[in-house]
Amino acid sequence: MSDKDVIILGIESSCDETAASVVKNGRIIMSDIIASQADFHEQYGGVVPELASRMHVDAIYPCIDSALKEAGVTLDDIDAVAVTYGPGLVGALLVGLSAAKGLCAVSGKPLVGVNHLHGHICANYLCFPELEPEFLCLCVSGGNTQIIHVKSYQEMEILGKTRDDAAGEAIDKIARVIGLGYPGGPKMDKAGQGGDVHAYEFAFNHMGDTLDFSFSGIKTSALNQINKIRQKGEEIDICNFAASYQHHIAHILADHMVKAVEKTGIKTVCLAGGVSANTFLRKAFDEASIKHDLRLYYPKLRLCTDNAAMIASAGYYEFIGGRTDDLALNAAPSLKAGR
Questions:
Q1: What is the pLDDT of residues 320-334, one digit of tens each?
Q2: What separation in angstroms does the CA of 117 have from each of 121, 125, 160, 310, 329?
Q3: How many CB atoms lie within 10 A of CB 154?
Q4: Is the Cα torsion angle 293, 299, 300, 305 positive or negative in sign?
Q5: Whether CATH 3.30.420.40 fits 7-121+304-320
Q6: pTM, full prediction
Q7: Which architecture characterizes domain 131-300 according to CATH?
């Protein structure tokens, strides 16, 4: 590696994925290790925070060791350690944060705290070498739904956000109600393949001229329809219901993004976050990009869900921008984008 290369070790533990990655110059993945807990938590119908934290403790150092070995580097070769410090489950965050602090304490390497939401945005940099700010990004997951104006690698502004449920949360809830279980998002996506997207209609909250979202209305509409069908002793057509519901949510998101493009004049658009893997969402954005002549980017599927490569990429841009943190950095479970 040349003298100009900057190597970042990324660590992620915000929810139920323990991950470590080594990334060069913010764009080149040298290793990407993920230890998922999804199969374990499936038996409980969702993530159990205390159990997730314990599993992170068991997995964190093996993941870090594997990431360094796969990249062919040692801690001496690392320029900085980047770690998610929020948002997320506080106990889970503290495991990754403690591990990162320990590495920095013994090695003298700088610590860079990374906003998990910024990490998701940076997943696009890992897939598209030509992509640079400024652009608009829809960051959509189980806990967040936001339209973000990415002004530079470090400066971001939230243009619109959900006022109640996140889009992913609305999908997960209905997945549980119709018996698909956890993880709801991928199972809903799979269940809806080939379904009639117009088989069911759903009411939703209109937010006027703002770019804000509300998904409580469409979730309630879906729940009411499910209850009425069951009260009649009828069966829900799972495939058509899942397809229709996700189609409606995807088009709400796409329509809001088109409004954001019209308001800002920015025609480069990215998707980020776990729900960006949803095929109904990608189709809606593909159609919108053709209709409105947008430059559309979304990460490959592995980088849509939680991973440490995106954290290392975000950490790189913070690090070369001159920002590091001291070892007093604490977890921030309610951290917002732009901070």
A1: 999 999 999 999 999
A2: 7, 14, 14, 10, 18
A3: 16
A4: negative
A5: yes
A6: 0.94
A7: 2-Layer Sandwich (3.30)
